[in-house]
Design a protein that fits this description.
Distance between the termini: 23 Å
Largest sheet: 7 strands, parallel
Helix content: 25-40%
Order of helices and strands: EHEEEEHEHEHHH
Strand content: 15-25%
Shape: globular
Number of helices: 6
Radius of gyration: 16 Å
Structural class: alpha/beta
């Protein structure tokens, strides 16, 4: 399975959460995160999920999650690759998603909101794609704390963040919604 979340925004908390839950659901399959932006991921090298920044290596893992910020390389996209765009409410992030939309059509657009005058309606008007929209509000405490600890904690997640993760898992990864409660419970017990 090849998954791409492309967008010029901070989304490592989302990617790490999704990766941990997918890995819990498919424990016998190898999983890796590949990113073009190592800024935060270098602190999670001991998290149990392999993280790579080298795109020149042909990926042989069963599940590859690409966290892309600047470009979508042609060689990572196949006919079975599931692509989601991500954008924050920052201008450069909206422009990046708009650029990506000129190249490829995603399955959905994830909006990472913040307190500002920009809203979801503005995003939908400026990124001209007709897809499902989902998202959550950025929680800088979660993002920063996780980086300082080098680990993920699933005990106190915001409701909208959890719902965005669940949308991704059910609609993009196609994990049955009936299995989500068990996945969250397992993730909380593991303490990752």
């Amino acid at each position: 399975m090849r998954l791409i979340v492309a967008g010029d925004c901070e989304k490592h908390d989302f990617i790490l959460t999704v990766a941990n839950l997918i890995h819990s659901y498919y424990p016998d399959q190898s999983l890796v995160i590949v990113t073009d932006h190592s800024r935060h991921y270098r602190y999670f090298q001991d998290s149990g999920i392999p993280i790579h920044m080298d795109f020149s290596i042909e990926r042989t893992e069963d599940i590859v999650i690409y966290d892309l910020h600047c470009d979508i390389p042609d060689d990572v996209v196949t006919e079975n690759t599931k692509i989601v765009f991500a954008t924050s409410f920052e201008r450069c992030s909206i422009e990046a998603a708009t650029q990506f939309s000129r190249i490829i059509t995603p399955l959905a657009l994830m909006m990472i909101g913040s307190e500002c005058n920009i809203n979801e309606k503005y995003i939908k008007l400026n990124i001209p794609i007709r897809v499902d929209y989902f998202g959550y509000y950025d929680n800088s405490i979660r993002r920063i704390d996780w980086v300082f600890e080098g680990s993920t904690r699933f005990t106190k997640l915001d409701k909208d963040f959890k719902e965005a993760v669940e949308f991704y898992l059910t609609e993009i990864v196609e994990i049955p919604s009936k299995d989500l409660k068990k996945l969250w419970s397992f993730a909380k017990k593991r303490g990752k």
